[in-house]
Amino acid sequence: MKRPRLLILGCGDVGMRLLPLLRKRFRIFAVTSQPSRCAELRALGAVPLVADLDQPATLRRLAGLASYVVHLAPPPAEGVLDSRTRFLTAVLPGHARMVYVSTTGVYGDCGGALFDESRPVAPRNARALRRVDAERVLRGWARRAGAQLSILRVPGIYAGDRLPLKRLQAGTPALIEADDVYTNHIHADDLAAIIVKALFRGGHNRVYHAVDDSDMKMAAYFDAVADAFQLSRPPRLPRAELQQVVTPALLSFMSESRRLGNGRIKRELGVRLRYATVAQMLARR
């Protein structure tokens, strides 16, 4: 009972991977909107709290509850503002230490450039605009409350059970080399470990790229997964043809090219990646 309290918001796959890493150090409270998940959370050592980030009245019990917070909850699916994070900051305690898991999508299309955390954000779609809004709201809360905030910008998360196998089996095409985009990756287990590091070592209002060492284009990623599972590689199409056969949401992910440096998580947080590249993970499966 003397352990410090930690509040986890958005306890999905990454949050569940996080619980075993932190349950000996903290008394953990995990927020869920689904009462059916309470037993699962208890089994991993968390105290489940049923609350809905879209319903401010249900968040009152979180006020002053914990001095450490991991915010994994995504913004709403529509609009350009993150109302969930706005509701949350109204009840978060002052002088807390928070890690917020954002997205690399806040940078928009960078033409394949390699860059560090000093690059300005340039969101190109509503999904990324909501994340930029959340970061801005949390920075304002941290300044007003005297809280410690670290922001992790996270790319595509993968794991053994989080690979594009259904896409490959469906034969969804990828872009030809000339039109293809650079993508960034992080294994779910490595992301959980990075969150732990940031919780204890993260700088005040500091941004970190939670990405691995992979340097590959999107189609090369699909090819690597296909080869590892003995599936057919996806067909390649020029962008003009591809946009006629994939959904707008999928096309948006295939329209932004960037490469993010991860030196800061290694220098400042002391991160040592378990899966330095996607190829390493696939070779160990």
Automatic annotation (TrEMBL):
<dbReference type="GO" id="GO:0004029">
    <property type="term" value="F:aldehyde dehydrogenase (NAD+) activity"/>
</dbReference>
<dbReference type="GO" id="GO:0006813">
    <property type="term" value="P:potassium ion transport"/>
</dbReference>
<dbReference type="InterPro" id="IPR036291">
    <property type="entry name" value="NAD(P)-bd_dom_sf"/>
</dbReference>
<feature type="domain" description="NAD-dependent epimerase/dehydratase">
    <location>
        <begin position="86"/>
        <end position="208"/>
    </location>
</feature>
<feature type="domain" description="RCK N-terminal">
    <location>
        <begin position="7"/>
        <end position="62"/>
    </location>
</feature>
<dbReference type="Pfam" id="PF02254">
    <property type="entry name" value="TrkA_N"/>
</dbReference>
<dbReference type="InterPro" id="IPR051783">
    <property type="entry name" value="NAD(P)-dependent_oxidoreduct"/>
</dbReference>
<dbReference type="InterPro" id="IPR003148">
    <property type="entry name" value="RCK_N"/>
</dbReference>
<dbReference type="Pfam" id="PF01370">
    <property type="entry name" value="Epimerase"/>
</dbReference>
<dbReference type="GO" id="GO:0005737">
    <property type="term" value="C:cytoplasm"/>
</dbReference>
<protein>
    <submittedName>
        <fullName>Sugar nucleotide-binding protein</fullName>
    </submittedName>
</protein>
<dbReference type="InterPro" id="IPR001509">
    <property type="entry name" value="Epimerase_deHydtase"/>
</dbReference>
